[in-house]
Write a structure and sequence with these properties.
Layout (H helix, E strand, L loop, with lengths): L3 H18 L3 H9 L3 H22 L3
Helix pairs in contact: 1-2, 1-3
Length: 61
């Protein structure tokens, strides 16, 4: 399992990579964590855990 705090760090790292490389979230996730299978498997959990957070924060843009 992955903590909420770690999930947000991972999520931020993936988003930054996606933005820089003009990739979608899942592609960026695979590129950032391609060598870390455990993290990659956790990304599904991360997406669930930050979904509420993301929808709240995106309304402020």
């Amino acid at each position: 399992p992955i903590s909420g705090h770690e999930a947000l760090q991972v999520d931020a790292r993936i988003k930054a990579h996606a933005q820089k490389q003009d990739l979608d979230y899942k592609t960026a996730a695979r590129q950032v964590y391609h060598s870390d299978i455990a993290k990659l498997e956790a990304i599904g959990e991360i997406e669930k855990s930050v979904c509420g957070f993301r929808s709240v924060s995106s309304q402020n843009l």
